[in-house]
Amino acid sequence: MGGGAVNDHFPGASDPLLPTKRDGDGDEDDAGASAFHEFDGASFAGAVFNLSTTIVGAGIMALPATMKVLGLVPGLVMIVLAALLTDASIELLVRFSRAAGARSYSAAMADAFGWWGRRLLQVCVVINNVGVMIVYMIIIGDVLSGSTSGGEHHYGVLEGWFGIHWWNGRLFVLLVTTLCVFTPLACLKRIDSLSYTSTISVALAVVFVIITAGIAVIKLIGGQIPMPKLFPTVSDLASVWELFTAVPVLVTAYVCHYNVHPIHNELKDSTQIKPIVHTSLTLCSTIYITTSFFGYLLFGESTLSDVLSNFDSNLGIPYSSVLNDAVRVSYAVHLMLVFPMIFHALRLNLDGLLFASARPLSSDNRRFGIITASLLLVIFGSAIFIPSIWDAFQFTGATAAVCIAFIFPAAITLRDSQGIAKKWDKILAIFMIVLAVVSNVVAVYSDAYKIFNKESAPSNAWIGESTENRSSWWLVR
């Protein structure tokens, strides 16, 4: 996928990973030299799993519904095209960063647009990642402790196993998860330290794929699955408009750009960044395609916007309840392990935004601890007290994610501060911006339509499903 000079190392790649004097790059991996005293560099496999974990978040559960909207053939083709477009945007970002000597995304933005460019990128990463992690925590609470919507309680896994008790309620479960899982992982200062948890996270995503595929194959052999829809059904203008509601999900399914530079900066061999990006995108595309195909094949037109919601009823095969619990638990643990990858970029960008002139974050344990604790407290409190956070964050989240993935890399290319852009680069950049703007307009309109016209929206429509299905832009990440 893609090409160009993305495999070339940044200037100064042989220098120490971190400068001794802070340059204000919020998303740079700025751990102090002492933190890397015995660190020889990240491995190829570790970098692949870290980047893949950044990509594969909750969005995997939204993809089967795109097949219901687009049909299998166009849907699978769009997943591949989205991967190719993501590879191209990363290639542009890394190539122009190399030319500018920028060791971080925010430094590349600063080179192209100055102070305000750096700050705009940092604000977008903070908005995007805070919203993403709040949603992750809400989903974990829903899966393990259940949720209540419209006066109806949907039992969580722990409630189903042990009954309703104070110790498996949402507050206590999320508190234990925050203290025992999120806090230790969030305190790691080097992104490569998360390579083992990232490996487990990707493995759990594969477990979900295997279980879903296995159930679909068993039911297919038993003749329990009808022929899936290969192409979309277009009967009127409303059905045409509905096709576009799948575009934002696909456009932002691969957002990982804010972690590309930190992963690159820690590599033992910096020239491996190109095959690392390709391998990660290939792995994630395979997971996405398999999940989309078998998820839609299994549930057909009953596929919900969050396919996890389909795993709370009888699947029509032996051990259905066991398989349902396996899917939900593996998914919840997967999100727990994705959380620290998103948190790493959030903390660095927030620190760069608030303390641009301070010494490196990792060399200031007091500031590191305060920022880490404050962010965890805000995310935990929001997940507990604002369970309807979806509506509050849909608009800002859509804009921030698309800006990070496509608009900013394209803008850096068009700005061309180093004079290296080719004609094709600029054509591609314009295409990315147009696609991002169109998908944003569609997302904002569809969200507004859902919020202000809930009564008239079809109960099973892509943009009109009930809130317990968690259909929103934030599900993409």
> By CATH's scheme, which homologous superfamily applies?
Amino acid/polyamine transporter I
Multimer state: single chain
Element-level helix/strand string: HHHHEEHHHHHHHHHHH
Terminal Cα separation, in Å? Answer: 22 Å
Overall pLDDT confidence: 81
- Taking strands numbered 1, 2, ... along the chain, how are they ordered across the largest sheet? 1-2
What is the beta-strand fraction? under 5%
Rounded Rg: 22 Å
| Principal-axis shape | globular
- The appropriate CATH architecture is Up-down Bundle
The SS-based structural class is mainly alpha
What is the CATH topology?
Amino acid/polyamine transporter I
Number of domains as seen in the coordinates: 1
Largest sheet, in brief, is: 2 strands, antiparallel
CATH class: Mainly Alpha
Work out the helicity level: 55-70%
Question: Count the strands?
Answer: 2
